[in-house]
Amino acid sequence: MTVDTLAADQHRTVEHCLRGIALRYTPGRRAIVDILAAAGRPLSINEIAAARPDLPRSSAYRHLVDLQIAGAVRRISAADEYTRFELDESLTEHHHHLICTRCGNVVDITPTNAFERSIHRQLDQLAAAHRFEPDRHTLDAYGTCADCLTR
Fold it and tell me: 72, 74, 75, 134: most buried by Cβ count inside 10 Å?
């Protein structure tokens, strides 16, 4: 699958998500998706605004909220001032995060298949004990990044 095909698939999926909540896939929302897809990592509102200075910050934030409600964008927070946004896993790949609570840095990590199988086993056992059927999971580890540890 080419990069262009992947991007087209992502855009079709986002458009479908937005239609599900009666919203249009406007050029501003498309720009946000393009910025997040190109970054390949969670971005702050400041980073998004820097990537598209012609898009008012208030509009960018509203687009992010709409995309989050539609299920196309995930919000990641270490603290309020360190909120980051990324495309939902349905548009990318399954991964987890290491989140620094001091500086807000977020690192995407992709564990091994063995780790994921172990998590699934444990989650299935815990969920069964509570008569719960999980659809998916995320694992966000909070702590201090290497840069903050050396400061």
Answer: 72
Residues contacting residue 128 through CB under 8 Å, at least 6 positions apart: none
Q: Please name the residues in contact with 93: beta carbons below 8 A apart, sequence gap of 6 or more.
A: 110
Q: How many CA atoms lie within 13 A of 141 on its CB side?
A: 12
Q: For residue range 73-118, list pLDDT tens digits in order.
A: 999 987 767 799 999 998 999 999 999 999 888 999 999 999 999 9
Q: Which of 114, 121, 148 shows the shortest CA–CA distance to 137?
A: 121
- Long-range CB contacts (< 8 A, 24+ apart) of 78-82? 78/104, 78/106, 78/142, 79/104, 82/44
End-to-end CA distance of the chain: 43
Q: Tens digits of per-residue pLDDT, 24-73?
A: 999 999 999 999 999 989 999 999 999 999 999 999 999 999 999 999 99
CA–CA dist 63, 59 (Å, integer): 6
